[in-house]
Amino acid sequence: METAVRGPLGNMIERSFRAEGPEVEWKVSLPQRDRIANTIAAFANGCGGSVLVGIRDDGRIKGISNPPAVRSELERVNRERIVPSVPIHYIVREVEGRRVLEARVQRALQRPVMVHGPDGDVRVYVREHASSRPANEDEIRLLRRRPERVRIDARMRRLLDAVCRLDRPTIADVAKAARLGLRTARPLLLNLRRAGLIGQKDGRRLWITPSGYRVLEGL
After folding, report:
1. Could you tell me the pTM of the whole model?
2. How far apart are CA 84 and CA 108, in angstroms?
3. Interhelix angle for 182-194 vs 154-165, to 10°?
4. How far apart are CA 202 and CA 197, in angstroms?
5. How far apart are CA 167 and CA 213, in angstroms?
6. What is the reported pLDDT for 106?
7. Which residue has the higher pLDDT, 125 or 2?
8. 146-217 in CATH: which number?
9. Residue 219's pLDDT is what?
10. What does the domain layout of the chain look like in residue ranges?
11. 203/184 Cα distance (integer angstroms)
């Protein structure tokens, strides 16, 4: 499905244009199939997200000349590289006479969503901050099961905020930033992981998932 939207930037669905992040990726033009496939899969494994084609890295609108051709290529990538293929809604946005294609990827119901690489390899990708990266085994296991429901209290919110603010923190780093002892912080962080709000890389470093960002933003 494709929708055409005209009008000033401020009147659009502004969140998509605000900045790159867990649910937004800017592309000045359509990149190589492998890279865009990784991004689509990472969005689907998270909370969904939008690929906006026609926006420079600095946020300036360049626009694209042929949105249908870009859409066709995205559909081909979705069909040939993504397993299972995911629902994508397309919106053509016109800003100051320039056209931007938004490919809005929905969160997958069947996870993990995988990417078939050019060499026949199969990988799972997740979204961390404004980047898409290969998931580790622990993250893949979490994707395969339904996240547990947890009540987020003030201490857990402080821990989640610390994971968000710090650069690849350890449990000790997060506990200190949240002003909690390690014995208190460990089980709370485990609950946040079981809820799919944070992940852990290499058994050490913590990171916040797109779902975690949404909790902090009150969405």
Report:
1. 0.81
2. 9
3. 80
4. 17
5. 15
6. 94
7. 125
8. 1.10.10.10
9. 60
10. 2-136, 146-217
11. 19
For the record, the structure tokens of 126 come out as: 């997740």
pLDDT of residue 42 exceeding 50: yes
**Which CATH number is 2-136's, of 3.40.50.1000, 3.40.50.150, 3.30.930.30, 3.30.950.30?**
3.30.950.30
Kindly report the number of other CB atoms within 10 A of residue 108's CB atom: 20
Distance between CA 152 and CA 214 in Å, rounded?
Answer: 13
| Highest mean pLDDT of the ranges 18-27, 85-94, 133-142 | 85-94
Dihedral sign, CA of 4, 211, 144, 82? positive
pLDDT band per the 50, 70, 90 thresholds, residue 147: confident
Q: Does residue 160 contact residue 166 with C-beta atoms inside 8 Å?
A: no
Helix pair angle (210-217, 154-165), 10° resolution: 120
Q: What is the Cα–Cα distance from 143 to 124, expressed in whole angstroms?
A: 10
pLDDT for 139 beyond 50 = yes
On whether the CB atoms of residues 115 and 82 are closer than 8 A, the answer is yes
Which one, of 25, 78, 76, lies nearest residue 53 by Cα?
25
pLDDT exceeds cutoff 50 at 183: yes
